[in-house]
Amino acid sequence: MTELSKDTANKPQANLVLRGAREVLTCVPAGDDPIGRRDDTMVAIGGEKIIALGSESEVANAVDLSNAESVDVSGMILAPGFVDCHTHLVFGGTRVKEYAARMTMDTEGVQALGIPTGILATMAMTRAASVDELTSLGLDRIGRMLRHGTTTVESKTGYGLNLESELKMLEVNRRLQEESTLDVVSTFLGAHDFPPEISRDRYVDLVVKEMIPAAAESGKAAFNDVYCDEGYYTVGQTKRILEAGMDAGLKPKIHLDAYADIGGAEIAAELKVVSVDHLNYTPPASMRKLANAGVIGVVMPGLDFAVGHPRPFDARLMIDQGMTLALATDMCPACWIESMQLVMALACRLYRFSPEEALLAATCHAAKAVELDHDRGSLEPGKLADIQIWDLPTFEDLIYRVGNNAVVGVIKRGQVVWF
Fold first, then answer.
1. For the chain, which domains are there?
2. Per residue in 1-24, pLDDT tens?
């Protein structure tokens, strides 16, 4: 039976139809098929949303196609647009010299060469950049993400580490939302590291008492994030910062257990944060608590690869413990990856995701990690027409052809933005 909008009596009018797809991957589970593969399926779009999926005759009987533009996607595969749910895409400058030097030496060796390293190096370059400069750089990165199939991207602050510069980054996120084709979800991450000019305790007070209220009042952030790890924010500091954000109306997220387990998962489960991201050192008992609390785990194979992580995360163990996993690029100065296709390939080859699990993690599960699964992440009537078009003989070729960009077209909110 065709899937149609609930109100078909008045023959909803389509303005765009996609005809001839080899296969449509709805990412709506159907029986034993977790990604809802469909053939002989037309997609009808009205305004920003999908209004029908079915055979051509089924759609024609239910939808007014008289004024619809037709796009021939013969032989192609359609899938939901990727939701890249963890990035740091707004930053000034580059750390390419650091990255290249780390191929053959450790941090001390790199610093001995006089090369600035880490978050604080990017902080200095980001503070020095103007809103216009950061917006231009962000638009350039987002443009490439779009051409690799991403239609929604989360963007964190965290390279300002003072009130003025963190608000500047939030303004850049606002401009990226307005000036780009993608939807940009903005996250305040003032608690990314500690700036060198004041004490840690004073900075935590600044984050809680001044920066979070200002970020919330600006209306430019949806989430509040904290880097809870050894050498960064303690469990006590993390709880204080997250609760301050929740009191201000910002939803909680955590960078968790990237380099040590310091007990942050307990707070994450207690507060029922939206997502916990990284999870390299998270023990099985904590995984179960997070699963029971309904917290989404965001894992980033590209980051582990880019930094040569000493302890890659254990995706299969997390899945076995009941966690729902999302994939993200972690696009940042230390991990310059703009392709979710590459992330899926790494997830499958190195972390034992099935291709189906990887696709769900990059679409509907990633949408859950930014609380947008109500209107995106799958192809079904009533959801946004965020669709990518692949020129591939089979779905599995997406993770088989490593480094290839399969995307030949993107539809965002019902508009053909690239084809």
1. 3-80+378-418 (2.30.40.10), 82-369 (3.20.20.140)
2. 455 444 445 789 999 999 999 999
